[in-house]
Amino acid sequence: MMKKISKVSVMHYVKLIYRSLIFLLALYWYIFHKSNNISISVRNVTINGKVDWFVYVIDVIYVIEMILRLFPSSFESPGCQKVFRKNYIPTGDTNIEMHDNHATVIVALIWIVLNGFIGGLYMLDIIDEGILWLVCLFYGVCDMICILFFCPFQTWFLKNKCCTLCRIYNWDFAMMFTPLFFIPSIGTWSILLIALVILIKWELTVWKYPEQFSENTNEFIHCKNCNEKLCMHKKQLNTFRATLNELAAEQIKRILKK
Q: Is 227 helix (H, G, I), strand (E, B) or coil?
């Protein structure tokens, strides 16, 4: 029986759609201008020296997203909302457990190495700042894919059972805009700075109030209080995918028998 999708999950799908559209439009924007030998400057937000509103609008959209993340919201995942003290519901247990703290260091190192490599390509003039900007937008799409379908960080490193318990949930924007580090300008570094503020606020809260991030001590992040129910949707998707695979296998067998 299909279960009704939660409003939080609906917002995830909305973000996936508009982030994907933004990326595809930006990719077209980049290819069109490069193929016509038109000068692009992401740091100055210009095309042939003239202000490019397309880049401005996309940057503003993400800035708004980040600013909203700094405040409590019923439309956001409990995975990021547990950072707010108002969402701490004591269970009475004092045994704080967060088994993935060491894994976060590994994830951070992998991310630094990956983006260090990409930044190296830029510094060697193999790619330009337009590509770095596209990488940021691509990361934005991948972020929603991780939430909705498959997260390599969760599966291979952190081992958390769901996004609600994710130790690095609010790292997303800082990870997304890491490539902007290599494009020094007031605009690019301002975006990166906002992302880092979210990250620093998260890490300081983990350090000061770890009880908010432990399932043992915070009832807010228990399954019964989850307003996202994303695990149910993932199970439904997995069941649907398994059914399609079975149908495809049966069809192939029929074709081979003919």
A: coil
Which residues are CB-contacts of 196 (< 8 A; sequence separation ≥ 6)?
Answer: 174
- The CA distance from 218 to 86, in Å, is 11
Q: What share of the chain is helix, strand, coil (3-state, %, to 5)?
A: 70, 5, 25
pTM score, two decimals?
Answer: 0.91
The two tokens of residue 214 are 């432990």
Please check whether residue 119 is in contact with residue 181, taking contact to mean a CB–CB distance below 8 angstroms: yes
Question: Token pair of 196, please?
Answer: 């880092």
How far from 161 is each of 73, 99, 157, 167, 185, CA to CA, in Å?
23, 12, 12, 11, 40
For the chain, the straight-line distance linking the first and the last C-alpha, in angstroms and rounded, comes to 35
Tokens of 14: 């909305």
pLDDT one-digit tens code per residue, 64-89? 999 999 999 988 999 999 999 999 99
- pLDDT tens by residue, 191-211: 999 999 999 999 999 999 999
Mean pLDDT computed over every residue of the chain? 91
d(CA 25, CA 219): 42
Work out whether the CA dihedral 53, 56, 62, 66 comes out positive or negative.
Answer: negative
Give the separation between CA 217 and CA 213, rounded to whole angstroms: 8
Nearest to 30 by CA among 18, 20, 42: 42
